[in-house]
Amino acid sequence: MRTSPQIRAPHPWFSRWFSGYAAKRLRRHFHRVRLLDGESLSDPKDRPLVIYGNHPSWWDPMAALAIKPIFYPNREAYAPIDAEMLERYGVFKSLGFFGVERDSVRGVAGFLDHAEAILRRPRSMLFLTPQSRFADVRERPVRLQRGIAHLAARVPETVFVPLAMELTYWEESKPELLLSAGTAATHAPGASRGETLARLEQSLEQAMDRLAEASIARRSEAFSDLFIGSAGVGGLYDAWRALKAIARGRKINLHHSER
User: Fold this and answer.
1) Which of 103, 142, 207, 259 would be 164's cystine partner, CB 3.0–4.6 Å?
2) What's the pLDDT score for residue 206?
3) How much is the pLDDT for 236?
4) CA distance 209 to 229
């Protein structure tokens, strides 16, 4: 008989502190963190929740930790991580990360057992990057590991919300971190795991396509700002612009664009 995995809940105080730290890192390294279609990140309240996204960079978990208090302040957040990496950086155990053995049948089974146990806990949620590798945002078609469909079938009441992410440069010296939530999906009654997997892939790909379109067009007005970082190039260039503004009695604005 399979035993239920032991779930280590995130430490409340440390999780709040680390979310603030993650937001500070984002402000330091990005011009802005922007969200397209923010209403799609609404909380389904009494239902299990999975936020799953593409995996363009190692900034993904930082972004997830930073936005969690904004949209899901009353939930406990969990995320899988390579088991060896978790042992190396044990601090993440206090943030809701749990270890998974990669590239093994036992690892997949362990992930599913652990994830299911989490989703059956009240007020819990999962952040997943089911591409399971770094992937370019232009890669098509979007392909996800089959484990996410098995999880959806195990806990069919779970709401799966796709979250597309892209890092790009616009007018400023620092990059923009762009996010877009897509259409939520669930495991439909009678659907096969393959059909559910296809729906989840399609929903994420559509969110990525919408985000790419807005990113290419540089439609800043279509986004809301989650975090605002610094602007300007720095050095003599910005110093000269600041001195000109002071001399003319104007407000110092180091942005190259309105937003």
Assistant:
1) 207
2) 97
3) 46
4) 26
- The helix/strand/coil state of 49 is strand
Model pTM?
0.87
DSSP-assigned states of every residue in 177-224: EEEEE---B---TT--HHHHHHHHHHHHHHHHHHHHHHHHHT-GGGEE
Q: Which residues of the chain have pLDDT under 50?
A: 235-238, 240-242, 258-259
What's the pLDDT score for residue 6?
A: 84
Q: Are residues 222 and 236 in the same domain?
A: no
| Number of domains composing the chain | 2
d(Cα 32, Cα 176) in Å, to the nearest integer? Answer: 5
Identify whether residues 61 and 161 lie together within a single domain: yes
Q: Confirm whether 241 is domain-assigned.
A: yes
Residue 205 shares a structural domain with residue 124: yes
Rounded to whole angstroms, what are the CA distances from 80 to 66, 98, 114, 139, 168? 17, 5, 9, 23, 27
DSSP string, 117-132: HHHTSTTEEEEE-TT-
Sign of dihedral through CA atoms 132, 208, 159, 94? positive
- Check: CB of residue 202 under 8 Å from CB of residue 60: no
Identify whether residues 36 and 142 lie together within a single domain: yes
CB under 8 Å to 146, separation ≥6 — which residues? 193, 197
161/259 same-domain check: no
Domain of residue 184 covers 12-228
